[in-house]
TrEMBL record:
Signal peptide: 1-18
Presence of the UniProt keyword Signal in the record: yes
Domain SCP intervals: 36-147
UniProt organism field: Pararhodobacter zhoushanensis
Alphabetical list of CDD domains matching this protein: CAP_bacterial
Keyword terms of this UniProt record: Signal
UniProt protein name: CAP domain-containing protein
One Pfam entry name: CAP
Taxonomic placement: Bacteria, Pseudomonadati, Pseudomonadota, Alphaproteobacteria, Rhodobacterales
Amino acid sequence: MILRVLTLLMLFATPLWAACEVPGSLGALRTELLVLTNAERAGQGLPALRMDARLTEAAQTQACRMADRGRLSHRGSWFAGLGRRLRREDYPYATAVENTGMGHRDAPQIIRGWMDSPEHRVNMLNPAVRDAGYGVARAGDGQLHWSMVAAAQQ
């Protein structure tokens, strides 16, 4: 019984995306994504976003799930949406948005793709959000899957 409990604790202590293939430069990519996002926001007179570890976990989980499935989605396992992922990460949000993408080679290309898409642009330039997190995962075919979560706490 004790061994079973310890095994379960170890499973749930590990991030959901731990088995996911991520680029070796994941930390640098996340920083670059934040810098590029904030440059777009500054160009519109909006405040800079801050990197938040909980949003990063939610974004990385989604990027890995998309890479695993080989398709874009805003739903995770059991059809869990962004709200459930943020609650799982203990982020009490008042507002939250998510951008996803796949196939873009690098950070400037995905940011340009999001800014060129009217729906994604609205999320990037949402004046109500204050924090952000980014996820990047590599699918079996080598394509990168990207996720951005931006939100503001209650």
